[in-house]
Amino acid sequence: MIRTRAAVLEESGRARPYAESRPLTVGDLDLRPPGPGEVLVRVAAAGLCHSDLSVVDGSRPRPVPMVLGHEAAGVVTEVGPGVRGLRPDDHVVFAFVPACGGCPPCQSGRPALCEPGAAANTAGTLLSGRRPFARAGRDLHHHLGVSAFSTHTVAAAESVVRVDRSLALDTAALFGCALLTGVGAVVNTAQARPGTAAVVFGLGGVGLAAVMGARAAGCHPIVAVDPVTTKHAVARAAGATHALAGGPDLVAEVGDLTLGGGDVVIEAVGSAAVLATAYAATRRGGTTVTVGLPDPRQTLSIPAVSLTAEERTLRGSYLGGAVPRRDIPRYVALYQAGLLPADLLLGGRLRLDDINAGFDLLATGATTRQVVVF
Ligand SMILES: NC(=O)c1ccc[n+]([C@@H]2O[C@H](COP(=O)([O-])OP(=O)(O)OC[C@H]3O[C@@H](n4cnc5c(N)ncnc54)[C@H](O)[C@@H]3O)[C@@H](O)[C@H]2O)c1
Ligand SMILES: [Zn+2]
Ligand SMILES: [Zn+2]
C-alpha cells in the first residue's frame, strides 16, 4: 500500500463557484499495488477536460466518491504480474477506454468501443473490476480507468500507451484526450481528405485539436466557431482560416465561406442545439460529426428526409474512433514534425490544490486546456 495525494469528487451537482462549494477534496489516500496486468504510474501532468466538468456538474452521471481525471501522462514505477511490453521508467500516456482485445468491437478494430472497457468505466472500476484507491478503509471509484488527479495511480496495462521519452510530459498528457479525440474525429471518423471544407464548433481543447487535425489533413477552408472570441486567435494559430462568433446568421455565413456548407462539420461543445446548427451548416452529401457529450436528457431533432434526399452522414465519435496504440504515437510524430501544434492547447498550469477553481474557469469557456502539474 502506498500513500498518494489526490482530488476526490465527493458529490455531483454542487453549485458554482466550485472554489466555494468544493466538490473536490484534495487529500491523502491509500493506493493498493498493481494487480495482475496492472501498472503503477507516477502522474506528471493531468488536463482538465469538459468531460470531467460534466461529472462535477452532474450532466454525465458517474458513481461517487471518485478520484477524477482521465487525460494524463506519467512514468511507470511498478508493473504487476504478467504485464508485457511495459517496465519501470517508461513514459506513458493514458487512454480513457481500456480495450480488452477480445470483445466484438475490439476484434473488429474498434477498441474505443470495447464492451468490458465501457462497463468498467461506467462502474468506476479498473478492467479487472478492482478499485485500488481507498480512504479510511472505504474504496473509492476510479475514473475511466485512469483517475489522474493523483500523484500516483494504478491502471490496467490496456489503459496506457508508451511514448517517446523526449516528449515533455505536460504536452504528452494532451494526447490522451484532447488530441486523440479532436484529431481522430477528423481523420478517423470523418476521414477528411485534402481540400475538404471543415467547420469546427467549440474551441476548447477538443475543438482546437480538431482544427489542428483538419489542417494536418489538408482541409481548406477551416472555419472555427466559438462565442468566446478571445479564442479566435488561438484557432487561427492552430490552422483555422476563419473564426466566427455565431449568432442568427451563422449558417449563412458558413455557407458563404464554404460555398454551400462544410464537407466535414465537427460539434465539440456538448450541446444538442449546437449539433442541430452543425448539421444545418453541413453541405448536402457532407458529414456531421458529434464529439460533444451532452446531458443524456437532450435530444436532437432533424428532418429525417434530409439524410436520404441530401445523402447526409451524421456520425458520433468517441475517443476519436481511435486505436490508441496506433494513433497516440502517430499524432506525437506529427507534433514532433511540426504538423500538429499541440502546445497551443496549453492554457495554464495549476496546482492540485487549486483544482476547484480550475473547474470554475473551465465552466466559463474562457480557457483552453489547463493542466495540473505534479
Ligand atoms: N467524444 C469523446 O471521446 C470526448 C472526449 C473529450 C471530450 N468530449 C466532449 O467534448 C466537448 C468539448 O470538450 P472540451 O474539453 O473541449 O470543452 P471546453 O469546455 O474546453 O470547450 C467547449 C467550448 O465550446 C464553446 N461553446 C459554447 N457554446 C458554443 C456555441 N453555441 N457554439 C460554439 N461554441 C460554443 C465554449 O465557449 C468553449 O470554448 C464536451 O462535451 C466534452 O465532454 C468528448
Ligand atoms: Zn476528455
Ligand atoms: Zn474489448
Keywords:
alpha/beta, 2 domains, six-stranded mixed β-sheet, seven-stranded mixed β-sheet, binds zinc ion, 374 residues, binds nicotinamide-adenine-dinucleotide, single chain, Rossmann fold, Quinone Oxidoreductase, Chain A, domain 1, 19 strands
The tally of beta strands, per DSSP, is 19
Summing up helix and strand content along with how strands pair, one would put the structural category as: alpha/beta
User: Can you summarize the main beta sheet?
Assistant: 7 strands, mixed
CATH topology of the largest domain: Quinone Oxidoreductase, Chain A, domain 1
Text of the CATH class of the largest domain? Alpha Beta
What is the alpha-carbon Rg in Å? 20 Å
Ions, cofactors, ligands: which are bound? nicotinamide-adenine-dinucleotide, zinc ion
Number of domains: 2
Share of helical residues: 25-40%
**Number of helical stretches of at least 4 residues:** 13
Low-confidence stretches: none
Strand content: 25-35%
CATH homologous superfamily identity of the largest domain: Medium-chain alcohol dehydrogenases, catalytic domain
Q: Which CATH-level-2 architecture of the largest domain?
A: Alpha-Beta Complex
Q: Note the gap between the termini.
A: 20 Å
Q: What is the residue-mean pLDDT, rounded to a whole number?
A: 98
Sum up the overall morphology in one term. globular
What can you see in these coordinates?
The protein has helices at residues 18-21, 50-57, 104-107, 115-123, 169-174, 178-189, 205-216, 232-238, 250-258, 272-280, 304-309, 324-336, 355-364, and strands spanning 2-9, 24-31, 38-47, 66-67, 71-79, 91-94, 133-135, 138-139, 141-142, 152-156, 160-162, 198-201, 222-225, 242-244, 262-267, 282-290, 313-316, 346-350, 369-373. The chain is an alpha/beta fold. Strands 3, 5, 6, 10, 11, 18 and 19 form a seven-stranded mixed beta sheet that branches. It has a six-stranded mixed beta sheet with strand order 8-7-2-1-4-9, with no helix packed on it. Strands 14-13-12-15-16-17 form a six-stranded parallel beta sheet, with helices on both faces. Helix 13 links the parallel strand 18 and strand 19. Helix 6 (178-189) crosses helix 7 (205-216) and helix 6 (178-189) packs across helix 12. It is globular, with a radius of gyration of 20 Å. It binds nicotinamide-adenine-dinucleotide and zinc ion (2 copies). Residues 49, 51, 70-71, 177 line the site of one zinc ion (ZN).
